[in-house]
Design a protein that fits this description.
9 helices, globular, single chain, Rossmann fold, 3-stranded antiparallel beta sheet, 2 domains, alpha/beta
């Protein structure tokens, strides 16, 4: 008997190795995958401006980077002693407006530099429900806990997402013709808007991406479907019943790795994981002969790995 509908053989021609530069932008699920990439020593830039949930704000961040459109202090707004920018996550906010601007400039340049050289950019859409400022009509990336009367909540139209992202893709390709663009929809549930609205929002995102793929040379990875249709059980959610559990993230990571990594890349990952787990080991008796022998073997393992893969060097001191 079969008890689940497993998604097998995800077709995607894009292959990723440790020679590639990678950019991840979007929902918090993006960061789950990027953290795995960091662990295995890939060259990754992930959400320099913090988590971004909606397609409009992702597009705005990319366009800022491509055009080097630096913010000035007139774009900041103060609340509760902090200066905020509505295109950026609260991680970018600060007490000193000059420091907020200086940090923004550094991150814009970093995103532009990475994107201009990247092999692949992953864009993860979280929600089609957005907040529009009543004073400027601008869609914000984060409401920074401003009073609800400051915004109007709306759901993006499918055509709006498609048109905006098609323009953004054209700009990305003009700057970096070899860049491969991979879309995914976050499996994180935005239930504060209600279960029905969350499903409608995800449906808009899925249909928009389908249309984007038909118009542009881009690809899709089914993060949303792996959790909602493959695992399909509350066992694979955290206690908040919103975010995927570590087990679910590991499962989606396995599918991700099987899709994008070839045999040689997987072999390198296995070596890195073995060394990393050893480095994370906490001995019961650090002075024991057994542990000293363990450290000696580990030092040799790290030396051999650094010699074979000098660009992926372990800098950990034992």
């Amino acid at each position: 008997m079969k008890f689940r509908t497993e998604i097998k053989n995800i077709n995607n021609p894009v292959k990723i190795s440790h020679n590639d530069k990678l950019v991840f932008l979007g929902s918090c699920f993006t960061e789950n995958i990027a953290q795995k990439m960091y662990r295995y020593k890939f060259d990754v830039l992930c959400n320099p401006f913090g988590i971004i949930y909606n397609p409009v704000s992702i597009s705005k961040i990319i366009n800022r980077a491509i055009s080097q459109q630096y913010p000035d202090k007139s774009e900041l707004i103060q609340l509760n002693g902090l200066w905020h920018h509505f295109d950026f996550h609260g991680d970018m906010s600060g007490i000193n407006p000059d420091e907020v601007i200086d940090k923004s400039i550094i991150f814009i340049d970093s995103l532009r530099d990475y994107t201009s050289k990247a092999s692949v950019i992953f864009l993860t859409f979280g929600t089609a429900i957005v907040y529009k400022r009543n004073d400027t009509d601008e869609i914000v990336a984060n409401n920074h806990k401003f009073p609800s009367g400051f915004f109007t909540k709306i759901r993006l139209e499918l055509s709006e997402i498609v048109n905006l992202m098609t323009d953004t893709i054209a700009d990305l390709k003009q700057m970096n013709p070899d860049l491969k663009i991979i879309f995914t929809v976050s499996p994180v549930r935005h239930i504060k808007d209600g279960l029905i609205e969350n499903q409608r929002s995800k449906a808009v995102l899925l249909l928009a991406i389908e249309k984007i793929l038909s118009l542009n040379d881009c690809y899709y990875f089914p993060s949303y479907e792996l959790l909602l249709d493959d695992l399909r059980d509350y066992r694979f959610y955290n206690e908040d019943l919103v975010h995927p559990s570590p087990t679910a993230i590991d499962y989606i990571w396995e599918k991700f790795a099987g899709t994008f990594f070839d045999k040689s890349t997987m072999e390198i990952i296995e070596k890195i994981e073995k060394i990393t787990k050893s480095l994370e080991h906490h001995p019961i008796n650090p002075e024991s002969e057994l542990h000293k022998s363990f450290l000696a073997n580990l030092k040799k393992e790290i030396f051999d790995f650094n010699k074979e893969y000098p660009e992926l060097k372990f800098n950990d001191l034992l």
